[in-house]
Amino acid sequence: MRRHPWVFSGAIERVTGTPEPGETVLVCTAQGTALGLAAFSPASQIRARMWNFDAEQPITAELIAGRIAAAAQRREHVLAGGTNSARLVFSEADGVPGLIADQYGDTVVCQLTTAGAEAWREVIADALAALPGVARVYERSDADVREREALAPNVGVLRGDTPPPNLLAHENGLKFAVDVEGGHKTGFYLDQRDGRAAVAQWAGGRNVLNVFSYTGAFSVIAAKHGAASIMSIDSSGPALATASRNAQLNSVDIGEVLEADAFTALRGLRDRARHFDLILLDPPKLANNAKQVEKATRAYKDLNLLAIKLLAPGGVLMTWSCSGAVTPDLFQKVVAGAALDAARMSSSSVRIIGRLSQPIDHPVPLAFPEAEYLKGLILQAD
C-alpha cells in the first residue's frame, strides 16, 4: 500500500450510506479490508482525503489540534533563522488535509480548501490561536479550489482582532508589506524564500529584469545587493504600488516599474534588442489540473523563449513554475525546447547551473509527491 492520501471518485466502487461533506468515513479495499479514515467530499474529484491509515484511531478535535501544534513546532527553527514568517501547516504534508496556515509575526493567515477542513473549522481556528505568540487568526479561504469542493468563499477574522494595516514580513534584514486581506495567497509568497536567497547571490552588478514582479521582493533584494539596474514588470497596478512601498521600507531604488502584460512587454523588449544580465521569471499558476497542462506548457515555452532571447552573454535566467500539474521533468523539457528554439536564431546556448524548489517549511511526503509544486531552474547563457 502506497499510503497516498487521495482517493479519487473513479477508484470508488460504492459508498455505503450518505455521508455529509467533510464527514469522516472508513475507507476499505474492494475485499473489505480497512485502510483508514478519511474526510468525505461528495462534490470533488478527490472524493476522500485520508486522515490516517489506522481505522482504530478516531479523528477527534484533540488529534487535529495536536497535529497543528506539532507542525508549528517543526517550523521553530525556520522562525529562529532570520525571519518572522513561515508556513506553519502545509495541508496533507502535515496531516491536516485542506489546511494552509502561514505566520507573519503575531498573525496567522489560514486557508481552508477542502470539505474536511471546513468541517473542523472551529477546532482549527482554536488550535491556531493557541500557538505561542499568535495574537490573531485571519481566514483567506477564497481560492478557486473551494469551488471544486462546493464551498463558498470565506474571508475575515477567525480569532482575535483585525490584522494591522502595516503588517510586515521580515527576512534576512529586509521588510516586506503583507496584505493579508487582499494580497495573493495569504499575503506574501513564503514559498519563494530560497528563490529570494538565490537572487541575492546573483544580483550584484547585473542589469536585472523581474517579470511577474508582484510586490517587488526580488527587485528589492536585487537593489540591496548591488544590481546595476532593475526593471520590474507586472500587470497589477496595486501590486506595483506595494513594490514601491517595499522599496521605501528598505531604503532602496528598484528602478523602472512597468505596468504591462508580461508577454507583450517581453516582445517589446525583444523588438528593441534589449538585453539583461539577470532575468527573473516567476509567473502565476498556469495549470490548475491535468486538462490545462498542454495550454500551460505552450505559455511556459513562449515566456522562456522570450526571456532567453533577452539574455546578455553570460546572463542568468531564473525561471519557475508553481503549477503542481506540471512535473519538474516536464518543466525542464519545456524550457529546453525554448532554449533550442532560441539557439536556432543565434549562436548562443544556455545550460542549467542550478535548481530551485520550495523551502523546508513546505515539505514533501514521500508518499505524496504532489506536494512538490514549485520548481525552478537557474540557466546561464554562453
Give me some keywords for this one:
382 residues, Archaeosine Trna-guanine Transglycosylase, Chain: A, domain 4, Rossmann fold, 3 domains, 18 strands, 28% helix, 28% strand
Explain how this protein is built:
By secondary structure, the chain is an alpha/beta fold. The chain is built from 10 helices and 18 strands. It has 3 domains: 47 residues, Archaeosine Trna-guanine Transglycosylase, Chain: A, domain 4 (Roll), CATH 2.30.130; 108 residues, RNA methyltransferase domain (HRMD) like (Transcription Regulator spoIIAA), CATH 3.30.750.80; 193 residues, 3-Layer(aba) Sandwich (Rossmann fold). Strands 14-13-12-15-16-18-17 form a 7-stranded mixed β-sheet, sandwiched between helices. The chain has a 5-stranded mixed β-sheet with strand order 5-6-7-8-9. Strands 1-4-3-2 form a 4-stranded antiparallel β-sheet. A hairpin with a 2-residue loop joins strand 10 and strand 11. Helix 5 packs parallel to helix 6 and helix 8 packs parallel to helix 9. The longest helix has 17 residues. It is globular. The protein starts with 5 loop residues before the first strand and ends with a strand.
Pairing-aware structural class of the strands and helices?
A: alpha/beta
In round numbers, the mean pLDDT is 95
Number of helices: 10
**Low-pLDDT windows of residues:** none
Please write the CATH class name of the largest domain. Answer: Alpha Beta
The CATH superfamily name of the largest domain is: Vaccinia Virus protein VP39
Can you name the CATH architecture of the largest domain? Answer: 3-Layer(aba) Sandwich
Count of DSSP E strands?
Answer: 18
